[in-house]
Amino acid sequence: MRYTALLIFISVFTTAFSQGIKLEVDRIAKRYNAVGVAYVVVKDGKIIHSDAVGYNDLEVKTPLSAVDNLFRIASISKSFTATAWMQLVDEGKVSLDDDFGSLIGFPVRNPLFPNKVITLRMLLSHTSSISDKNGYFNLDAINPIKNPEWKKGYNAYEPGSQYEYCNLNFNMAGAALEQAVGVRFDNHIKKQILTPLKLKGGYCIDSLDNTAFAKIYEYDSKNQKFEVQPAAYAPRSEEIRNYTLGYTTPVFSPTGGLKISAEDLARYMIMHMNYGESNGVSLISKSSAKIMQTPVNKDAGYGLALRENKTFVKGKTMVGHTGSAYGLYSAMFFEPQERFGVVVITNGCKQVFEDDEPVLLEEVANYLYGNLISPR
């Protein structure tokens, strides 16, 4: 009887504590007029807390879920592309220092530095000198065979010498990945990363349950209201029916198109926190995981689709990535030595920024850290 009473007490206490956490996160979210916020906390390499506040659907007031709702996580998707490349590196099929032009099938050279090889490592670290000036949804943007304006797609500095964030880098990396493996990008990521880790989600809208998608809202400051953004989950069905492997790849957006729940994103994060392994599944080698986490450009703190961040949790240097698209803001950061991490996603808010970082996500992360990871 005493044991049963103890279990009941622990259950009641845990529920009350979780509700207290949720109430405070909800207060933070409301200060920023957030539509909804999903959050997951990892400690000692395990998920210890997962919840959400606010709404998935503003009109019918459907609650948001960290488990059941799939979010287009935007640029955090880049790390999945880089992880898939590191698997090929581990298998000895490719080198990070290979000429990227040989991987993509057309010359990739900065016209101001024609003798400087632009490598796979440079694309995955945004040090390629390639820019988004010609757009990034079509590989012709930088293909000298098809685009007479291709030279405008490069910056005026030597490849490898500087950092500039560029979405085209990763749509090109996704297309080259298809050419390397002979499998459509979304199917390859599912087979090599999502399925082994038992994660739901993917890049292809038509392969997912569209009732699970978290609606994304962008705030219209002129009319002072939130507008739902259906384009975030546009299926691109016609383009996929007429798909050309290694060319049409940007329709899946390797640079930002993955749909996944907050909780499953945290499980993926645990794999990187554990240097490539999770629950007995080894996706990449420890050395490859460390390469991804180590800045290529020290000033930017950016490795291979993972970057250092010193503000997400005050006093901690963490590793991960952020994302923003259509009004959604996402963040996934972990501390591999101390083995903790936080995932925070909002599907829309009247955002306030500081140093180009979404303050809402940082405030939630710091609150969770102080109350769940390192209680004061």
TrEMBL record:
It comes from the Bacteria. Residues 27-353 form the Beta-lactamase-related domain. It holds the Pfam family Beta-lactamase. This is CubicO group peptidase (Beta-lactamase class C family). It comes from Sphingobacterium yanglingense.
